């Protein structure tokens, strides 16, 4: 296969891999191999936060019947037939709560910690050689749960008896399949385990997000009702920029609805619905990209102080396409088929491109805002210094635009400061929570970003809501508001702010104009 054909096939390969990767709180093991860890061979069967069973749960088959359990079904271990001429030691399943992790493994005379019982430890009588080292939990002597099965001679399949472990204490539970026999290194695992919370099959970390996305769906509906009603009321005054905001609100409504149905279906069946998840991810990715592009274009003055982006249009489009592709891959890998409450390592390699693109967006946005504000200042000062009636009328329109740009800049600055602070908190939270012991609060981290972006969208809707005076903020094609051609090419470079002229006569004229009404030029002539 040529390099070009390989590149064109990569999206299809990724999509097929995502479909095969789909799991759920029903963990499916299909030919999984053991991995050597120290003196043991290990398969990680899953990690999920589970709330304890409710005291009055009923025995119905409904997902939200109040019981919580980990159930083993059709668990089979297979070995090659050519290596089936001997009986083996135990292949054990170990289920433990994260606080009891120190009860698994041990060491002789303070040496290196081992999972499997060594000859020295067996001599001390603390374990059986060839089996897992474990001791009862201080909180509950019945935990950790350890049970297993062994291969009989001339048998290539060993079947673990079905069992269900009731969860009576809330915690982060881990499942590992472990054996200590090097002759079983080619053994594979098949079967399923079902992990259930009292309210359904959603993992504990994800469970609060279902209600959160339901609330966010309602919030977007309320915002949509306000925005769409304003559009319908002043449809003659609607600007292209306001149509872009309409698109973002619509995408947000679909995103929140799809996320809610994704989690609701997952909670009901235990299997994450691939189609709904992909649609939720796609709508969210497109919404975030369009929102960033709108903020960037507004910062450049598009539709307000310039009719087009000029030579920067292709660069803006290229940045948007790159961001949507990087974000889509990251979100698909992170969400499609995701089940366990432990993050995958692949995410670390996919977060970096998105973070770099986000940083570039922020830099370009604030640089463009600086240039736009500077230009508005200069034009206002020029108009008032010339004392021309028409120029002063235009200056009053520019002052209205300057005021809205100042508020917009302040809102963005607050959002960036809050984002940086939250990122620091998130890094602190994850560094202190290596074993996911704070899983009950982990849902707040993704929820915060949704709330922050929605809050910024509400600010934009308040500043640019359609009204009878919407044209006041629109670009005027009479030539008085047009930027110089050179500005289009230098907009991404920092521009110096105008010098402080508070003591000069021009500033006194500017301050004095604040008492004037800010109607349109036509209204002023009527008076």
Characterization of the model:
The protein has 527 residues and is of the alpha+beta class. It has helices at residues 3-21, 119-124, 207-233, 240-269, 274-300, 313-335, 346-386, 389-432, 444-463, 485-490, 505-512, 521-526, and strands at 26-33, 35-37, 40-50, 69-78, 90-97, 145-150, 157-159, 163-166, 171-179, 188-196. Strands 1, 4, 7, 8 and 10 form a five-stranded antiparallel β-sheet that branches. Strand 2 (35-37) and strand 3 form a beta hairpin. Helix 7 (346-386) packs antiparallel against helix 8. Mean pLDDT is 81; it is low at 1-24 and 483-527.
Task: Label the overall shape.
Answer: elongated
Can you give the helix content as a percent range?
A: 40-55%
Please tell me how large the radius of gyration is: 31 Å
Order of helices and strands: HEEEEEHEEEEEHHHHHHHHHH
* Class from secondary-structure proportions: alpha+beta
Write a brief caption for the model.
By secondary structure, this protein is an alpha+beta fold. Helix 3 packs parallel to helix 9, helix 5 packs antiparallel against helix 6 and helix 7 crosses helix 11. Helix content is 49%, strand content 13%.
Q: Tags for this entry?
A:
527 residues, elongated, disordered N terminus, alpha+beta
Q: What order do the helices and strands come in, and which of them pair?
A:
Layout (H helix, E strand, L loop, with lengths): L2 H19 L4 E8 L1 E3 L2 E11 L18 E10 L11 E8 L21 H6 L20 E6 L6 E3 L3 E4 L4 E9 L8 E9 L10 H27 L6 H30 L4 H27 L12 H23 L10 H41 L2 H44 L11 H20 L21 H6 L14 H8 L8 H6 L1
Antiparallel strand pairs: 1-10, 2-3, 3-9, 4-7, 4-8, 4-10, 5-6, 5-9
């Amino acid at each position: 296969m040529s390099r070009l054909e390989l590149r064109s096939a990569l999206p299809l390969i990724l999509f097929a891999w995502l479909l095969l990767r789909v799991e759920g709180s029903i963990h499916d093991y299909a030919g999984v191999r053991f991995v050597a860890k120290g003196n043991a061979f290990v398969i990680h069967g899953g990690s999920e936060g589970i709330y304890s069973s409710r005291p009055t749960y009923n025995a119905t088959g409904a997902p939200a019947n109040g019981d919580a359990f980990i159930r083993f079904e059709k668990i089979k271990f297979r070995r090659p037939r050519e290596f089936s001429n001997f009986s083996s030691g135990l292949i054990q399943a170990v289920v433990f709560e994260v606080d009891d992790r120190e009860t698994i493994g041990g060491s002789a005379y303070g040496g290196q910690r081992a999972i499997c019982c060594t000859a020295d430890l067996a001599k001390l009588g603390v374990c059986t050689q060839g089996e897992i080292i474990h001791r009862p939990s201080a909180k509950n002597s019945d935990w950790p749960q350890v049970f297993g099965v062994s291969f009989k001679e001339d048998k290539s399949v060993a079947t673990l008896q079905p069992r269900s472990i009731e969860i009576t204490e809330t915690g982060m539970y881990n499942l590992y399949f472990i054996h200590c026999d090097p002759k079983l290194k080619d053994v594979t695992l098949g079967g399923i385990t079902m992990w259930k919370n009292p309210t359904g099959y959603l993992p504990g970390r994800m469970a609060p997000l279902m209600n959160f996305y339901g609330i966010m769906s309602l919030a977007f509906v309320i915002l949509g009702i306000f925005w769409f009603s304003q559009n319908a009321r002043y449809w003659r005054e609607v600007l292209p920029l306001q149509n872009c905001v309409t698109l973002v609100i619509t995408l947000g409504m679909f995103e929140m609805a799809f996320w809610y149905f994704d989690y609701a279906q997952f909670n009901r069946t235990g299997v994450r619905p691939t189609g709904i998840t992909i649609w939720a991810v796609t709508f969210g990715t497109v919404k975030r990209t369009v929102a960033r592009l709108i903020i960037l274009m507004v910062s450049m003055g598009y539709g307000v102080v310039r009719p087009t982006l000029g030579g920067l249009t292709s660069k803006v489009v290229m940045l948007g396409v790159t961001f949507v592709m990087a974000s889509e891959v990251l979100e698909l890998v992170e969400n499609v088929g995701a089940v366990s409450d432990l993050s995958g390592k692949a995410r670390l390699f996919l977060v970096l491109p998105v973070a770099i693109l986000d940083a570039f967006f922020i830099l370009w946005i604030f640089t463009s805002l600086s240039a736009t504000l500077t230009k508005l200042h200069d034009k206002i000062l020029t108009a008032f210094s010339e004392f021309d009636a028409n120029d002063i009328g235009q200056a009053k329109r520019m002052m209205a635009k300057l005021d809205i740009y100042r508020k917009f800049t302040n809102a963005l600055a607050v959002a960036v400061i809050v984002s940086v602070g939250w990122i620091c908190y998130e890094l602190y939270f994850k560094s202190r929570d290596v074993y996911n012991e704070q899983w009950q609060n982990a849902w707040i981290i993704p929820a915060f970003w949704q709330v922050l972006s929605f809050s910024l969208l509400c600010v934009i809707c308040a500043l640019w809501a359609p009204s009878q005076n919407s044209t006041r903020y629109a670009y005027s094609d009479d030539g008085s508001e047009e930027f110089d051609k050179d500005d289009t090419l230098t907009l991404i470079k920092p521009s110096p702010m105008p010098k402080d002229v508070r003591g000069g006569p021009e500033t006194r004229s500017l301050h004095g104009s604040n008492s004037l009404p800010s109607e349109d030029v036509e209204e002023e002539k009527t008076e």
